[in-house]
Design brief:
Blueprint lengths: L4 H8 L4 E8 L4 E9 L14 E6 H73 L3 H7 L10 H15 L13
Length: 178
């Protein structure tokens, strides 16, 4: 006797382990329970997929077993493969999100350090200016290249300090409004 049971199972092309439980019932009827397990799927929802239960005589099961299991098994297999792929993508997105958050945090820390350095330099410049050390204050001004967002402020302060220690080369005195 030649059967093609395993060839037909292979033709189903399902992913996972197929568990068959066959029990003899009353009146020469059999109960076949078919459960697909996919250990690669990380979603616990796979446990909610119930086994497929078929009941019938040996002749009925021989004739209709594969007709009844093909669609449900392929659906369950596809679902578990899709769930696994989904969770892998979610995990990848989570990793990228963590990397992006880390990048944003690093950039914010760098910006905070840069702002702190600028604030400290300007405080030093203000202190030297109050002490009348205008030339030294001018030299302590931060570079425009280091703080391009504060370029106008730095240039204005540089001009202001220059006016306090640099003589007017042309000897012209400032006109006063009358």
């Amino acid at each position: 006797m030649e059967t093609h049971f395993f060839r037909k199972l292979a033709d189903l092309n399902i992913t996972g382990n197929l568990q068959l439980t066959i029990a003899k019932g009353a009146d020469d009827r059999y109960i076949v329970s078919v459960l697909l397990q996919n250990d690669k799927c990380g979603d616990d929802a796979k446990r909610l997929i119930p086994p497929l239960n078929l009941k019938g005589t040996a002749a009925e099961l021989d004739n209709g077993f594969f007709e009844h299991v093909i669609k449900p098994l392929q659906t369950a297999s596809d679902l578990m493969v899709d769930m696994d792929a989904f969770f892998k993508q979610v995990e990848e997105a989570r990793k990228k999100s963590a990397m992006e958050k880390e990048k944003v945090d690093r950039e914010r820390k760098e910006q905070d350090a840069k702002t702190k350095k600028y604030t400290e330099a300007m405080a030093k410049v203000d202190g030297l200016d109050r002490e009348g050390k205008h030339r030294e204050a001018w030299m302590k001004l931060p570079k425009v290249e280091d703080h391009p967002e504060k370029a106008d402020e730095i240039r204005k302060r540089r001009t202001e300090l220059s006016g306090k220690f640099a003589p007017d080369l042309f000897g012209a005195e400032k006109e006063q409004d009358v």
